[in-house]
Amino acid sequence: MASSGGGRWYHPGVRVGPVSAQRIRLLSDHLTGAALVTGAVLAGVLLVLPTLVVILASFTSASYLSFPPAGLSLRWYARLLASDEILRAARTSLIVAMLATAGALGLGVLTAFPLVRGRFRGRDAVMAFTLAPIMLPSIVLGIALLFFFGFLGIRLSLSTLVVSHILITFPYVVRTSAAALLQVDAVLEEAAANLGATPWQTLRHVTLPLLTPGLAVGAGFAFIESFDNLALSIFVAGQRQETLPMRLFQLLVSDIDPVVAAVSATIIAASFVVLFAVHRLAGFGQFMRVIGERRAQLP
């Protein structure tokens, strides 16, 4: 290989100069970007396509599940609304999800404050421990809670179901609340204290309003996780408590008909409604960017 004037290199049959190297880098960047976009589109299609299939199948006029539907009909939604068992299960899921979300919010905020603003030995271990319930498989956690309640002599009921759901939704609230608390300017709290506000007044009128985006996102995640949960609920629900996912599972085991698709489509719609409400209340996209920016600051 030899070099001639002007910075150009020669090789038998090949000549690469500074301009060519720059073009190669630009081509490589374009190919990388195109590959990432293609992967994102394929992932989106794989996630969205099954959902669309379920929704469309729920409107079939046939007496069996089929796709594409033979005809369009609302008969299976009418059957859903006429089923006392499905409506009772939906009511139970709604009550459990609301109670679990409220409990997770209270415990999550109380835990986030010392984890973010406290300086104590073992803080990293405590943060890791709060994330443990969502790191364990739901079946393993459900079996563990079943044996735990049995060891304490606690009968399975609505209370055990709510407590178990608080356990699995609590980490979401801790994480989002901690990220939001990092955004709170301590100068505002100091100004409120200098103006004569008590710690409780500062918390109520300054800190908590600033935490609203984080609390809303955490509450949305907690509600959806609780409402859609099946694997854990099977082990910790009492004989008289049946959630909507549990009812859906029973329908799949006994007889697969289009009402299963109607129930699934209803759950999907409810999840989207919650996400839309969170987005309108807290600015979901903006807050998720905040979490990404502050993730490195969390233990």
Can you describe this structure in just a few lines?
This protein is an all-alpha fold and 299 residues long. It is built from 14 helices and 3 strands. Strand 2 (9-11) and strand 3 (14-16) form a beta hairpin.
Features:
single chain, 299 residues, mainly alpha, MetI-like fold, 2 domains, three-stranded antiparallel β-sheet, 74% helix, 3% strand, globular
Give the SSE layout.
Elements: E1 2-3, E2 9-11, E3 14-16, H1 18-57, H2 75-82, H3 84-117, H4 123-130, H5 132-135, H6 138-152, H7 158-181, H8 186-194, H9 199-210, H10 212-228, H11 233-236, H12 244-254, H13 258-282, H14 284-294
Helix pairs in contact: 1-13, 2-13, 3-7, 3-10, 3-12, 7-10, 8-9, 10-13, 13-14
Helical proportion, percent range: over 70%
- CATH level-3 fold name of the largest domain: MetI-like fold
Radius of gyration, Cα only, in angstroms? 27 Å
Q: How many individual β-strands?
A: 3
Could you spell the SSE succession in H and E letters? EEEHHHHHHHHHHHHHH
Q: Describe it for me?
A:
The protein is mainly α and 299 residues long. The chain folds into 2 domains: 2-57; 76-297, MetI-like (MetI-like fold). Helices cover 74% and strands 3% of the residues. It has helices at 18-57, 75-82, 84-117, 123-130, 132-135, 138-152, 158-181, 186-194, 199-210, 212-228, 233-236, 244-254, 258-282, 284-294, and strands at 2-3, 9-11, 14-16. Strand 1 (2-3) and strand 2 (9-11) form a beta hairpin. Helix 10 runs antiparallel to helix 13.
